[in-house]
Write a structure and sequence with these properties.
Elements lengths: L3 H16 L5 E4 L4 E4 L6 H24 L9 H26 L1 H24 L6 H34 L8 H4 L15 H49 L8 H17 L1 H24 L10 H44 L3 H11 L16 H21 L1
Length: about 400
């Protein structure tokens, strides 16, 4: 499923998050599994959660303050940054809340994924066979997606921390409370030395590390979990299509996939209900910023398209995979009904009747956005349409 290199990187991300207590777990390097923390060891994780919630409220408060400053005095680019950070802080807070509320379910899902990756990597050696073409294609695809996603995660905290040096008076930065930013942009006319900004750069580096570690972990968890289900569905489809005498619908294998999807929907419920809305709203803001103010200072405003690319990538990839799962699931159920109903007409034994009942109880595999909607291919199109519409509304209004 994953290459050895990507597995090592994923384990390193888990190890780092556990050591920094950004996740409420401890990493077992021998078994390569996550273990629960004792209640007495949760204080640092709870402190991270409290800080994120505080910064979310702080950014909202500062945004309201900015509204009392006229647009001629306060740059539009900083207003866009402030609005975007409200969304990112909110998503990180939801991710940390999810760890605290559904920590045991998430731990179970992570350990299932790690075991599945180990089994898939060991399968060719145990069965004494070369990797199949499908396995190689799946490994390359996941390697490509994960490498790009982890690369974005690695460079993002430092890039965002540098913004404090460039714009210390941005309202969502803690430095705006220290420096005399009244009368912005002229201020007091004083040029601040780098040493005065270093403490605030370090604060921002800590905040962005917590934010993007939390968001990247949730993205990787969803991406790998849904990829697992999609890969197994493809195997089921191939088995039903190419088997000369199919022995019936593989209900047991399908039930396992249903349990995995239920665990994903249950453990990641807060994140699934909010991530697409928040990320695409942030993408709209950043796209508006790239169009509206990039020409004023292309170097400094390069953050708008760069950050927008990251948010768009982490928002669109789980939606596309979920849509593929729904599409592939319909094909598998349709093939199963052709096999079962055809055999049931010829053989109406008790076993065939039970098989028909089991198949009718397979309601489908759907990744759900809480109680709002399910992620299908149509949701991808709707999300893109809403993003473009919101961006155009910003351009018309501002």
């Amino acid at each position: 499923m994953l290459s050895l290199q990507n597995t090592y990187i994923l384990c390193y991300l888990l190890d780092l998050g556990c050591h920094l207590q950004l996740f409420p777990y401890q990493w077992d390097p021998t078994k390569k599994r996550v273990l629960p923390l004792l209640k007495s060891q949760l204080s640092i994780f709870q402190a991270h959660s409290l800080i994120m919630a505080t910064m979310t409220a702080f950014s909202m408060y500062r945004f309201l303050q900015v509204q009392y400053i006229s647009g001629d005095e306060f740059p539009l680019s900083l207003k866009i940054m402030n609005s975007g950070w409200i969304g990112i802080y909110s998503l990180a807070t939801i991710g940390l809340y999810q760890f605290g509320r559904h920590g045991e379910e998430i731990r179970t899902l992570v350990n299932w994924l790690l075991k599945y990756v180990e089994d898939q990597q060991a399968a060719p050696k145990v069965q004494k066979r070369p990797k199949s073409r499908e396995e190689i294609a799946q490994e390359k695809r996941l390697t490509r997606y994960l490498t790009f996603g982890i690369s974005l995660f690695a460079i993002t905290p430092a890039a965002h921390a540098i913004l404090v040096y460039e714009s210390p008076c941005a309202p969502h930065f803690s430095s705006s409370l220290y420096f005399p930013c009244s009368g912005f942009p002229n201020g007091t006319g004083k040029t601040y030395h780098l040493l005065e900004k270093i403490p605030f750069i370090m604060i921002e580096y800590y905040l962005t590390t917590v934010i993007f570690t939390t968001i990247s972990f949730n993205w990787a968890l969803l991406f790998l979990g849904i990829s697992w289900i999609l890969y197994e569905l493809k195997k089921l489809e191939a088995k039903l299509t190419h088997s000369p005498r199919p022995g019936g619908f593989p209900t047991g294998q399908y039930r396992v996939l249903e349990n995995i999807m239920k665990l994903i929907n249950s453990s990641c419920r807060p994140y699934l209900a909010t991530f697409s809305t928040i990320l695409f709203a942030v993408v709209s803001l950043l796209l508006f910023g790239a169009i509206r103010v990039w020409h004023q200072d292309p170097g400094s405003n390069l953050m708008f398209p760069a950050c927008g690319l990251r948010c768009f990538y982490e928002g669109i990839t789980p939606l596309m995979l979920s849509g593929e799962v729904v599409k592939k699931n319909k094909k598998v159920i349709a093939q199963g009904k052709q096999i079962v109903y055809g055999r049931w007409i010829l053989d109406q034994s008790r076993k065939r009747k039970l098989e028909k009942v089991w198949l009718n109880s397979c309601h489908g595999l759907r990744c759900e956005a809480g109680s709002l909607f399910t992620f299908e291919n149509s949701i991808v199109i709707i999300s893109l349409h809403n993003t473009m519409q919101l961006t155009l509304n910003f351009l018309v209004t501002f």
